[in-house]
Amino acid sequence: MISAILQQKIVDYLKPYKPTRVGIFGSYARNQQRQDSDLDILVNFEKTVNLLDFVGIEMDLTDILGIKVDLVSEKSILPAMRPYIEKDLHILL
Known about the structure:
Strand 2, helix 2 and strand 3 (69-73) form a beta-alpha-beta unit. The chain contains three helices and four strands; from the N terminus they run H-E-E-H-E-H-E. The protein starts with a helix and ends with a strand. A four-stranded mixed beta sheet has the order 3-2-1-4, sandwiched between helices. It has a single domain (4-91), classed as Beta Polymerase, domain 2. 35% of the residues lie in helices and 23% in strands. It is α+β, with helices and mostly antiparallel strands and 93 residues long.
């Protein structure tokens, strides 16, 4: 799991985009991360964020956290994947 400080950095960075839900899933949520693991962040925004901004957010979070971030929109999750993500999900907001 990432530290409370990094969790707060994620929430603080995303606030201007008005997220309605933010969570971590995958190896970091399970406390099974390795040095080469990326940080999977699930997010749902109040308003649609265009693709260019979405990629920019992902890149900025990678720089801020010092961990490769994989940002996933809740709306883009395939129904078959949802149970696996929800099982691990650690809600930040």
